[in-house]
Amino acid sequence: MQFLHPDLDAYAERHTAPEPDHLRLLAEETRRSIDMPQMLSGHVQGRLLSLLSTLLRPKLILDIGTFTGYSALCLSEGLAEDGMLHTIDIKTPLANMVDRYVRMAGMHARIHQHLAPAIEVIPRIPGTFDLVFIDADKQNYVHYFDLVIHRVRPGGLIIADNVLWSGKVLAPVAEQDGETRGLTRYAEHVRADQRVENLLLPVRDGLLVSRVR
Predict the structure, then answer these.
(1) pLDDT at residue 40 in the model
(2) Quick one: which of 101, 105, 98, 30 has its CA closest to 66?
(3) How many CB atoms lie within 10 A of CB 204?
(4) Disulfide check for 139: which of 65, 82, 182, 208 has CB 3.0–4.6 Å away?
Protein backbone atom coordinates (compact mmCIF):
# COMPACT_ATOMS: atom_id res chain seq x y z
CA MET A 1 0.00 0.00 0.00
CA GLN A 2 3.10 2.23 -0.17
CA PHE A 3 2.79 4.07 -3.50
CA LEU A 4 4.83 7.18 -2.70
CA HIS A 5 8.38 7.23 -1.41
CA PRO A 6 8.24 7.40 2.42
CA ASP A 7 9.90 10.83 2.35
CA LEU A 8 7.15 12.15 0.06
CA ASP A 9 4.53 10.62 2.33
CA ALA A 10 6.10 12.39 5.29
CA TYR A 11 6.24 15.66 3.31
CA ALA A 12 2.53 15.33 2.46
CA GLU A 13 1.68 14.75 6.12
CA ARG A 14 3.74 17.76 7.25
CA HIS A 15 1.83 20.00 4.86
CA THR A 16 -1.60 18.61 5.74
CA ALA A 17 -3.70 19.87 8.64
CA PRO A 18 -2.97 17.81 11.78
CA GLU A 19 -5.31 15.14 13.07
CA PRO A 20 -7.46 16.05 16.06
CA ASP A 21 -6.07 14.50 19.24
CA HIS A 22 -8.77 11.80 19.46
CA LEU A 23 -7.92 10.61 15.94
CA ARG A 24 -4.19 10.59 16.65
CA LEU A 25 -4.81 8.46 19.74
CA LEU A 26 -7.16 6.17 17.83
CA ALA A 27 -4.58 5.68 15.08
CA GLU A 28 -1.86 4.93 17.61
CA GLU A 29 -4.01 2.35 19.43
CA THR A 30 -5.10 0.74 16.16
CA ARG A 31 -1.50 0.33 14.98
CA ARG A 32 -0.41 -0.93 18.40
CA SER A 33 -3.10 -3.46 19.21
CA ILE A 34 -5.40 -4.29 16.26
CA ASP A 35 -4.83 -6.87 13.53
CA MET A 36 -4.36 -5.45 10.00
CA PRO A 37 -3.88 -1.82 11.12
CA GLN A 38 -3.21 -0.87 7.48
CA MET A 39 -7.01 -0.86 7.06
CA LEU A 40 -7.00 2.48 8.88
CA SER A 41 -7.71 5.46 6.61
CA GLY A 42 -4.81 7.40 8.12
CA HIS A 43 -3.85 11.03 8.40
CA VAL A 44 -3.84 12.39 4.81
CA GLN A 45 -6.80 10.34 3.56
CA GLY A 46 -8.70 11.14 6.74
CA ARG A 47 -8.20 14.88 6.25
CA LEU A 48 -9.43 14.51 2.66
CA LEU A 49 -12.60 12.74 3.85
CA SER A 50 -13.12 15.46 6.43
CA LEU A 51 -12.65 18.17 3.80
CA LEU A 52 -15.10 16.60 1.34
CA SER A 53 -17.67 16.17 4.09
CA THR A 54 -17.19 19.75 5.29
CA LEU A 55 -17.70 21.08 1.75
CA LEU A 56 -20.87 18.99 1.38
CA ARG A 57 -22.33 19.70 4.86
CA PRO A 58 -24.28 16.41 4.81
CA LYS A 59 -27.35 15.74 6.91
CA LEU A 60 -27.12 11.96 6.45
CA ILE A 61 -23.89 9.99 5.99
CA LEU A 62 -23.60 6.24 5.47
CA ASP A 63 -20.25 4.62 6.35
CA ILE A 64 -20.05 0.98 5.21
CA GLY A 65 -17.19 -0.67 7.07
CA THR A 66 -16.41 0.81 10.49
CA PHE A 67 -13.19 -1.00 11.49
CA THR A 68 -11.96 1.12 14.45
CA GLY A 69 -14.03 4.18 13.52
CA TYR A 70 -11.37 6.49 12.07
CA SER A 71 -13.10 7.20 8.76
CA ALA A 72 -16.50 7.63 10.45
CA LEU A 73 -15.07 10.23 12.80
CA CYS A 74 -13.37 12.08 9.92
CA LEU A 75 -16.59 12.13 7.89
CA SER A 76 -18.62 13.26 10.89
CA GLU A 77 -16.60 16.47 11.12
CA GLY A 78 -18.58 17.91 8.20
CA LEU A 79 -22.06 17.00 9.43
CA ALA A 80 -24.74 19.66 9.29
CA GLU A 81 -25.95 20.85 12.68
CA ASP A 82 -28.79 18.33 12.73
CA GLY A 83 -26.87 15.65 10.80
CA MET A 84 -26.41 11.95 11.58
CA LEU A 85 -23.85 9.35 10.52
CA HIS A 86 -24.67 5.63 10.37
CA THR A 87 -21.69 3.29 10.38
CA ILE A 88 -21.98 -0.45 9.74
CA ASP A 89 -19.69 -3.37 10.50
CA ILE A 90 -19.86 -6.95 11.71
CA LYS A 91 -16.61 -6.81 13.74
CA THR A 92 -18.32 -6.93 17.12
CA PRO A 93 -15.04 -7.14 19.14
CA LEU A 94 -14.15 -3.61 17.99
CA ALA A 95 -17.51 -2.04 18.90
CA ASN A 96 -16.45 -0.95 22.39
CA MET A 97 -13.28 0.64 21.07
CA VAL A 98 -15.27 2.53 18.43
CA ASP A 99 -17.77 3.72 21.02
CA ARG A 100 -14.97 4.91 23.32
CA TYR A 101 -13.45 7.16 20.64
CA VAL A 102 -16.85 8.37 19.40
CA ARG A 103 -17.56 9.53 22.96
CA MET A 104 -14.09 11.07 23.24
CA ALA A 105 -14.90 13.10 20.12
CA GLY A 106 -18.22 14.19 21.60
CA MET A 107 -20.12 12.57 18.72
CA HIS A 108 -22.01 9.82 20.58
CA ALA A 109 -25.39 11.45 19.84
CA ARG A 110 -24.65 11.82 16.12
CA ILE A 111 -22.91 8.57 15.16
CA HIS A 112 -25.04 5.42 15.20
CA GLN A 113 -23.10 2.16 15.12
CA HIS A 114 -24.77 -0.89 13.51
CA LEU A 115 -23.40 -4.40 14.07
CA ALA A 116 -24.93 -6.53 11.32
CA PRO A 117 -24.42 -7.23 7.60
CA ALA A 118 -24.70 -4.01 5.60
CA ILE A 119 -27.11 -5.53 3.09
CA GLU A 120 -29.55 -6.02 5.97
CA VAL A 121 -28.99 -2.64 7.65
CA ILE A 122 -29.01 -0.24 4.69
CA PRO A 123 -32.68 -0.76 3.74
CA ARG A 124 -33.67 -0.06 7.36
CA ILE A 125 -32.02 3.38 7.52
CA PRO A 126 -34.60 6.03 6.58
CA GLY A 127 -33.87 9.14 4.54
CA THR A 128 -31.80 10.38 1.61
CA PHE A 129 -28.05 10.06 1.82
CA ASP A 130 -25.77 13.02 1.12
CA LEU A 131 -22.53 11.06 1.43
CA VAL A 132 -21.73 7.34 1.32
CA PHE A 133 -18.31 5.84 2.08
CA ILE A 134 -17.72 2.21 1.04
CA ASP A 135 -14.80 0.43 2.73
CA ALA A 136 -15.95 -3.10 3.50
CA ASP A 137 -15.83 -6.54 1.81
CA LYS A 138 -14.60 -5.89 -1.71
CA GLN A 139 -16.70 -8.54 -3.45
CA ASN A 140 -19.86 -6.65 -2.42
CA TYR A 141 -18.88 -3.13 -3.53
CA VAL A 142 -21.15 -3.31 -6.59
CA HIS A 143 -24.01 -4.58 -4.43
CA TYR A 144 -23.56 -1.71 -1.95
CA PHE A 145 -23.50 0.83 -4.79
CA ASP A 146 -26.71 -0.57 -6.23
CA LEU A 147 -28.35 -0.49 -2.79
CA VAL A 148 -27.63 3.22 -2.27
CA ILE A 149 -27.44 4.91 -5.69
CA HIS A 150 -31.18 5.64 -5.88
CA ARG A 151 -31.10 7.05 -2.34
CA VAL A 152 -28.27 9.58 -2.76
CA ARG A 153 -29.39 13.12 -3.54
CA PRO A 154 -28.25 14.89 -6.70
CA GLY A 155 -24.85 16.40 -5.93
CA GLY A 156 -24.20 13.80 -3.23
CA LEU A 157 -21.07 11.63 -3.17
CA ILE A 158 -20.36 7.91 -3.11
CA ILE A 159 -16.71 7.30 -2.20
CA ALA A 160 -15.14 3.84 -2.46
CA ASP A 161 -11.82 3.04 -0.80
CA ASN A 162 -9.02 0.64 -1.83
CA VAL A 163 -9.85 0.78 -5.54
CA LEU A 164 -6.15 0.50 -6.50
CA TRP A 165 -5.64 -2.45 -4.12
CA SER A 166 -1.87 -2.10 -3.96
CA GLY A 167 -1.72 -2.26 -7.75
CA LYS A 168 -3.33 -5.70 -7.99
CA VAL A 169 -6.17 -4.28 -10.10
CA LEU A 170 -3.71 -4.15 -13.03
CA ALA A 171 -3.28 -7.93 -13.10
CA PRO A 172 -5.03 -9.90 -15.87
CA VAL A 173 -8.55 -10.85 -14.81
CA ALA A 174 -7.69 -14.56 -14.89
CA GLU A 175 -5.00 -13.95 -12.27
CA GLN A 176 -7.09 -11.80 -9.92
CA ASP A 177 -8.40 -13.11 -6.60
CA GLY A 178 -12.00 -12.55 -5.51
CA GLU A 179 -11.33 -9.25 -3.74
CA THR A 180 -9.42 -7.81 -6.70
CA ARG A 181 -12.13 -8.89 -9.14
CA GLY A 182 -14.70 -7.22 -6.88
CA LEU A 183 -12.79 -3.93 -7.08
CA THR A 184 -12.20 -4.01 -10.84
CA ARG A 185 -15.86 -4.93 -11.33
CA TYR A 186 -16.85 -1.95 -9.19
CA ALA A 187 -14.68 0.47 -11.17
CA GLU A 188 -16.20 -0.69 -14.44
CA HIS A 189 -19.71 -0.68 -12.97
CA VAL A 190 -19.62 2.97 -11.90
CA ARG A 191 -17.81 4.01 -15.09
CA ALA A 192 -20.74 2.66 -17.11
CA ASP A 193 -23.41 4.24 -14.91
CA GLN A 194 -24.63 7.49 -16.43
CA ARG A 195 -26.15 8.58 -13.11
CA VAL A 196 -22.71 9.46 -11.74
CA GLU A 197 -19.53 11.28 -12.76
CA ASN A 198 -16.35 9.77 -11.39
CA LEU A 199 -12.87 10.72 -10.31
CA LEU A 200 -10.34 8.09 -9.23
CA LEU A 201 -7.90 9.73 -6.82
CA PRO A 202 -4.57 7.91 -6.34
CA VAL A 203 -4.56 8.84 -2.65
CA ARG A 204 -3.12 6.07 -0.51
CA ASP A 205 -4.78 2.87 -1.83
CA GLY A 206 -7.12 4.72 -4.18
CA LEU A 207 -10.42 6.56 -3.65
CA LEU A 208 -13.06 6.42 -6.38
CA VAL A 209 -15.31 9.46 -5.90
CA SER A 210 -18.66 9.33 -7.68
CA ARG A 211 -20.85 12.44 -7.77
CA VAL A 212 -24.55 11.76 -8.37
CA ARG A 213 -25.85 13.87 -11.26
Answers:
(1) 85
(2) 98
(3) 22
(4) 182
What is the mean predicted confidence (pLDDT) over 151-176? Answer: 96
Cα 209 to chain centroid, rounded: 11
pLDDT tens digits along 179-195? 999 999 999 999 999 99
Name the E strands within 93-163: 111-115, 129-134, 152-161
Residues 79-103 have pLDDT tens digits of 999 999 999 999 778 999 999 999 9
The phi and psi torsions of 24 (rounded to 5 degrees) equal -60, -45
Question: What phi and psi values does residue 137 have, to the nearest 5 degrees?
Answer: -65, 125
C-alpha–C-alpha distance, residues 56 and 8, integer Å: 29
Taking phi over 0 as left and psi of -120 to 50 as alpha, with beta for the rest, 19 belongs to beta
> DSSP letter at 68?
T
193 and 178 in contact (C-beta within 8 Å)?
A: no
Which tens digits make up the pLDDT trace of 16-44?
A: 999 999 999 999 999 999 888 888 889 99
- Specify whether the CB–CB gap between 13 and 47 falls below 8 A: no
Residue 67 zone, left/alpha/beta (φ > 0; ψ -120 to 50; rest): left
Instruction: Specify whether the CB–CB gap between 152 and 162 falls below 8 A.
Output: no
Mean pLDDT score of the chain, rounded to an integer? 95
Largest CA distance in the chain: 48
Calculate the dihedral angle through the C-alpha atoms of 92, 97, 103, 109, rounding to the nearest 10 degrees: -10
In Å, how far from its chain's centre is CA 57? 17
